[in-house]
Amino acid sequence: MHKKWSVQEKLAVLQEIERSQIGLAAVAKMYGIGKTTLIEWRDRYELNGFEGLEHRICNRSYSADLKIQ
User: Fold this and answer.
1) CB 48 within 8 Å of CB 66
2) What angle do CA 41, 4, 13 make, to 5 degrees?
3) Which Pfam families match (predicted)?
């Protein structure tokens, strides 16, 4: 089961990448996070700031009216 990372934890990991000299792949291994996940976090943070790191709701349910449109 995957760990759910809080916004503060995600930000701390991204800051670790910026201030360290070891690179994204090494930080990913150090924290047990996939490189792709870190890249997604970084891209969302650069695009939307702090809000970009908030938990995204997946598998939304839509009303029948909206589905018909």
Assistant:
1) no
2) 40
3) HTH_23
Return the number of other C-beta atoms located less than 10 Å from residue 27's C-beta: 18
**3-class secondary-structure state, position 38:** helix
Contact 24, 35 (CB under 8 A): yes
Domain ranges of the chain: 7-56
CA distance 50 to 32: 22
CA 38, CA 47: separation in Å to the nearest integer? 14
Which tens digits make up the pLDDT trace of 14-65?
Answer: 999 999 888 899 999 999 999 999 999 999 999 999 889 987 766 667 777 7
